[in-house]
Each structure stands twice: as structure tokens, then as C-alpha cells.
From TrEMBL, chain A:
It comes from the Bacteria. The keyword Transmembrane helix does not apply. Belongs to the CobU/CobP family. The lineage of its organism: Bacteria, Bacillati, Bacillota, Clostridia, Lachnospirales. Pathway: Cofactor biosynthesis; adenosylcobalamin biosynthesis; adenosylcobalamin from cob(II)yrinate a,c-diamide: step 5/7; Cofactor biosynthesis; adenosylcobalamin biosynthesis; adenosylcobalamin from cob(II)yrinate a,c-diamide: step 6/7. It comes from Pseudobutyrivibrio xylanivorans. This is Adenosylcobinamide kinase. One of its GO terms (molecular function) is GTP binding.
Automatic annotation (TrEMBL), chain B:
This is Adenosylcobinamide kinase /adenosylcobinamide-phosphate guanylyltransferase. It comes from Pseudobutyrivibrio xylanivorans. SUPFAM superfamilies: P-loop containing nucleoside triphosphate hydrolases (SSF52540). One of its GO terms (molecular function) is nucleotidyltransferase activity. Pfam families: CobU. GO terms for biological process: cobalamin biosynthetic process. InterPro entries: CobU/CobP, P-loop_NTPase. Keywords: Kinase, Nucleotidyltransferase, Transferase.
Amino acid sequence: MITLIYGGSSSGKSAYAEDYVCQSNCKNRYYLATMLAQDSESQERVKRHRNLRAGKDFITLEQPYDIGNTVETKEDSIILLECMSNLVANEMFREGKINSQAATVSKIINDIKELDSKVAQLVIVSNDVFEDGLEYDEYTKDYLRALGKINAEIAKMADKSVEVIVGIGVER
Amino acid sequence: MILVVGGSYQGKTEFARTEFPDAKYFNQLHLFVKKRISEGKNNSEILAEIRDVIKDGDWVIISDEIGNGIVPLDENDRTWREVCGRIMIELAKDATEVYRVVCGIGQRIK
């Protein structure tokens, strides 16, 4: 079962997603971190998220790509995947190569399906990066198209989609 | 306090004036936050100042949502949207009502 939690940067979506996961009855809580923290600013973000999760009994898995196989099949598990915008960037611009939009979308959707089949609940945090009205280069546009498609596909598969606005969850 | 948020040019001010004609307004909070950051103020100092301004009377705070885009290249812009987001989350907790305006239509979300 998939839940999509969607929102802008600093909208409170992570705190909302963690509360959501902590309210489930699943015994094993996994936090699947997809960010490659390569600079000090990213490392600060990772630190902030770690503090946010502290004491909530999450097992943290760091996996920047190939998420399908990250856990063993367990019926009483819940995974919080954070976040899709990083995963799409990592899969698309991977190991010095650029994968096409179509290939990136189908790879990630397949991985999501595989991961979802292994756990009771999969909670996916994704990012609204589509509303700044700016014109970007072709690579960035391709990335935006891929992320947009993936978000729409996840929303289709999901039992529930929630948009987080100023910390408040609104069901869509 | 009532908080009204939404993208630029979505009719937030008009919505607020129609719905809450007798309130006091703190409009364009996002720009106020930007100004205070440029003066070297941090998240909690800015939040404290806002709370002080609105402590008497019925206030409506109106702000653009600025976090719904690609990560900005400029560090100051990244700081701005982060601080703005965090402050709005705190103000939403304080607020008795929160509205999100899209195309002039306000949705009450709290």
C-alpha cells in the first residue's frame, strides 16, 4: 500500500510524513534516505532530518538509487522513502551518464512496485518543484518531466495522496 | 490570527479583503522575511518580531508560497525559502484559520 506525501521545499512534509509513519501499527520502521550528501549544505540537511527522526525508532537505509531491493520481505514493515526528487536526479544523472526521461521513469516505477510488494506500507515523500515559473535548460526540463510523470504515476498507484501546505496535510 | 497563503498573483489579497474586511493586514510576509534576513536576522528573531506586531487585534497575514520550485542556485535565495517555509509552519500552528488560495479560490485547510 502506497501513500504519497507531496509538498514544496520547507513545507513541513518530512515532519508530517514521520508523524504519519509513527501512527501506523507496523513493527519495523525503515527510513530510506536517497540523498547523496556531497556538500556541507546537504550534510546540514541530513543532520536536521536525523535530529527530526531521533527517538522515533527508524532503521535508516541510505540508498541513492536501485531502491527495489533495499529490504527483505516483511509483512509488518513500513518504509518512509525520502525523497523522490533526489532519487530521480540520482537515477537520471548516474555515474557520469545521463539516462533518458523514459528510462528513468520506468526504472523508478518498477523499483517502487518491487519495494511496495515487500512491505505492508510504503510512504513516499516527493517534492513540488514545478511552480517557480522559470525557464530551465533541456536537462533540467527533462528532469522536471520525469519527476512530474513519476509523481502522477505514484498518485495513481497510491491509496492516499496528501499535499502538505505550511505543515498542514490536505488530502488530494 | 488568520493565515492566507498561495502562489503569486492568485488573488490572495482580494480573497482576504472580501472574507475578512474588518481585520488588520500583514501583507507580503515573504518579502518582509527577505528584508529581515538581509539585515542579518535569524529565523526565531523574525518570528518573534512578527508575533509582536500582531499581538493586538484581529490580524490576517498574507504570504506567497515560495518553496514550490527547483532549488535556487543562489545561497541567499535558498536561505530565504527555507526560513520563509519554517516561519509559515509556525504561524500556521498559531493561526485559528489557514487558507490556501489558487486562482482566487480560497480553500480552508485549518
